[in-house]
Amino acid sequence: MSNETAKYINSRRRHKNDVAIARQVKIAKAHGLTNKDKAIKETLSFNGNWRELVDQLKLGLVKALAQQSELVSFKDNEMILSIADEHKHLLNETYQKKLELSLSEHFNQRIKLVILQKGANNSPLKQKQEERSTLMKDTEEAMLQDQFVQSLLTEFNAEIIPSSIKPNQSL
């Protein structure tokens, strides 16, 4: 790809991003909102909960990249994420640009996205897996302590099939 072609492609991407942000601002103004209004300020704020933000965004296939990433920092309109080496296949440029665009639209301002390959011990997906594991363990323990289950096990020499245990609530 020539240098001129690369410049053109990058300018088109920036233009799409700017158009999306301008569209959001136009909608806000059409509803009588300005930068001083509470509604816009709330849109621009971020409480640091990456998992919650990922759940709010409409990402499609790009959600896999977001769910496998851990938030490192977010300041001065730059969001730094980290991803584990085993998920580096998700680091294609298209996914990164789509995630960056989605974040920019969400915050109503251009967000620069940087993704590092330094591991992700606290990604949204890992959090959900740990919660599921804890819920499953608690369910198994509760079942084994149940008087009715205990009587079935002892009186009828019953066995519990581990794969048949399902928690009442789902994550």
Describe the structure.
- With 171 residues, the chain is mainly alpha-helical.
- It folds into two domains: 114 residues, GMP Synthetase, Chain A, domain 3; 41 residues.
- 54% of the residues lie in helices and 11% in strands.
- The chain is built from seven helices and three strands; from the N terminus they run ααααββαβαα.
- It has a three-stranded mixed sheet.
- Helix 1 runs parallel beside helix 5.
- The longest helix is centred in the N-terminal third of the chain and has 28 residues.
- The chain is elongated.
Structural key phrases:
171 residues, mainly alpha, GMP Synthetase, Chain A, domain 3, 2 domains, 3-stranded mixed beta sheet, 54% helix, elongated
Question: What is this entry, summarized?
Answer:
54% of the residues lie in helices and 11% in strands. The chain has 171 residues and is mostly helical. The protein folds into 2 domains: 3-116, GMP Synthetase, Chain A, domain 3 (2-Layer Sandwich), CATH 3.30.300; 124-164.
